[in-house]
């Protein structure tokens, strides 16, 4: 899952980004509204966190412009004060939700999870495909009755494959959603992770679920 964070206060931005990365989200940070607008229109984010008070373009203006540009990613506004007008203005500008600063990290993470679920129109906390099951709240995976221990990145990778299953996902989409913009696309990290997931998911199973679409990407499905 890939998130855009637009926040001008560096300390706050790095604090939030670190917390989200620990939960296996890929996070891009923009320090100005202008940069946020540019990133938000160029990349398909799973969620956008937008601070209201920014130098130059305000968060509300950024939100309005993103919506006008046809960006449908769920947007969470971060408001500094509990001003009713600011909240209403944000929602009118097309934001999905708002959070008042200062907030607890647990609250932010819960809101982000809810926002992403809504974005995918999947209200279920569980993702299934064949006998593979992913519990997105507890961050647990199992195939049949056996639990599969996954690292946070492996979980994020598998979650993305499952959300699209049985459709194909391109290598570029995987990089964009599972890693962030600092990722060196020349490395073979994607292949390394696919191999690890195969070892964990498909090894010892007759029906293989992870398939390579030669030269393009990968697909999760029960038919090769
Ligand atoms: Ca600010």
**In DSSP terms, counting alpha (H) and pi (I) runs of 4 or more, how many helices?**
8
Strand order across the largest sheet: 2-1-3-4-5
Profile the largest sheet.
Answer: 5 strands, parallel
Helix content: 40-55%
Proportion of residues in β-strands: 15-25%
Ligands bound to this protein structure = calcium ion
Return the average pLDDT rounded to an integer. 88
User: What shape does the CA trace take?
Assistant: elongated
Cα(first) to Cα(last) distance is 26 Å
The CATH superfamily of the largest domain is identified as Response regulator
Radius of gyration: 18 Å
Q: CATH first level of the largest domain: which class?
A: Alpha Beta
Contiguous uncertain segments of 5+ residues: none
Succession of helices and strands = EHEHEHEHEHEEEEHEHHEE
Tell me what the structure shows.
By secondary structure, this protein is of the alpha/beta class. It contains 8 helices and 12 strands. The chain is elongated and about 60 Å long. The structure holds calcium ion.
Indicate the topology:
Elements: E1 2-6, H1 10-22, E2 26-30, H2 33-42, E3 47-51, H3 59-68, E4 75-79, H4 84-92, E5 97-100, H5 105-119, E6 126-129, E7 132-135, E8 140-143, E9 146-148, H6 152-164, E10 168-170, H7 171-178, H8 189-201, E11 210-213, E12 217-220
Parallel strand pairs: 1-2, 1-3, 3-4, 4-5
Antiparallel strand pairs: 6-7, 7-8, 8-9, 10-12, 11-12
The chain binds calcium ion.
Report a brief summary of the structure.
With 224 residues, this protein is an alpha/beta fold. The chain is 41% helix and 22% strand.
């Amino acid at each position: 899952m890939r998130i855009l964070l637009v926040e001008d206060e560096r300390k706050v931005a790095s604090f939030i980004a670190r917390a989200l990365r620990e939960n296996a989200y890929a996070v891009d940070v923009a320090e100005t509204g202008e940069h946020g607008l540019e990133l938000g229109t160029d990349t398909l984010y799973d969620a956008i966190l937008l601070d209201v008070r920014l130098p130059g373009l305000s968060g509300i203006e950024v939100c309005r412009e993103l919506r006008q540009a046809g960006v449908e990613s769920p947007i969470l506004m971060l408001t500094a004060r509990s001003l009713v007008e600011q909240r209403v203005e944000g929602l009118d500008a097309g934001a999905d939700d708002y959070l008042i600063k200062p907030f607890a990290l647990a609250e932010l993470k819960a809101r982000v999870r809810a926002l992403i679920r809504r974005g995918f129109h999947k209200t279920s906390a569980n993702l299934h495909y064949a006998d593979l099951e992913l519990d997105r709240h507890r961050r647990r995976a199992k195939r049949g009755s056996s639990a599969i221990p996954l690292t946070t990145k492996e979980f994020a990778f598998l979650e993305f494959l499952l959300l699209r299953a049985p459709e194909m996902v391109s290598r570029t989409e995987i990089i964009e959603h599972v890693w962030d913009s600092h990722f060196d696309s020349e490395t073979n990290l994607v292949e390394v992770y696919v191999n690890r997931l195969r070892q964990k998911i498909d090894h010892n199973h007759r029906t293989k679920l992870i398939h390579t679409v030669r030269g393009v990407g990968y697909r999760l499905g029960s038919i090769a």
